[in-house]
Structures are given as structure tokens and as C-alpha cells.
Amino acid sequence: MKNLLLIALTIFNISFSIAQDKTTIEKEAADLAQEQLDAYNKRDIEAFLKPYSENVKIYAFPDQLLYEGKAKMRKQYTSMFNQLTDLNCKLVNRIVLNNKVIDHEEVVFVKSQPVIFAIAIYTITDGKISEVRFMQ
Fold it and tell me: What pTM does this model have?
């Protein structure tokens, strides 16, 4: 009987630990996605790039590599931040599962133009955004 109780307690502890790890991973993933979104809306390039890994890969969904690396991302977004004063992204919905964040976004590039709805899928690896896949 003692052995069964010990086994049950061990299984409970392992399950509880896994659930805590998943919660921690998902919180970190959501925090990184939100951090870059907030910086995007402020057009703050340094804050925007902070959550990304040095060798981040940016894709058009599902697997068309657009570019790789934070240096290329800096060039792309600095230009956009400087030229598009109306630039704004509103989060419509967010789903977080393990190290993936799926954001449904409403993006304004120019106020006189219609909004664009997009999906961004962020993958978090070692505490940084390592991949982004965009879908329109």
C-alpha cells in the first residue's frame, strides 16, 4: 500500500512539474510577443529587436524564407518605422501553445488605406523569438 501511495505521489509531482514548466514557457512566449508588439507600435527599433534572436528567420507562411538575421530585420523595420508614421498593429486575438504564439493582427500602414488582417506565428527558442511566419 505504501508503495502504491509513493508511486501515486511521484506521478502527481511529475505531472504538476510538467504543468508548471508549460505555464512558464507559455508566459515567456506571450511576454516576448507582446514586448515586440508594443515596441512596433512605438516604432522603437531597439526595443522591437530586443526579443529576437540574432539569427531570427522570417517566413511567408508556410515556409518561404524572406530573410534571416537581426541585422536584416533592423534594416527592414527601420525603414518602415521611419516612413510610415501611421503604422500601428492591433492585436485581435492571441493563442499560445507551448513555445508558439499565434497572433491575429489588424495592421494599419497608412490611415487612408484599408487595414490589413494578418497572422503572425512566433516560435520561441532559448528565451528569444527565433522564427516568425506571416500569413495574409
Answer: 0.82
Give Cα 92 distance to the centre of its chain.
14
Contacts of 68 (CB under 8 A, 6+ apart): 55, 56, 57, 58
Cβ neighbours for 107, distance < 8 A, ≥ 6 positions apart: 88, 89, 90, 115, 116, 117, 118
Contact 132, 66 (CB under 8 A): no
Give dist(CA 62, CA 95) in Å, integer: 18
> For the chain, what is the radius of gyration of the CA atoms?
19
In this prediction, residues 54-65 reach a mean pLDDT of 96
If one compares 78 and 10, the residue with the highest pLDDT of the two is 78
Which tens digits make up the pLDDT trace of 61-86?
999 999 999 999 999 999 999 999 99
Q: How far apart are CA 40 and CA 48, in angstroms?
A: 6
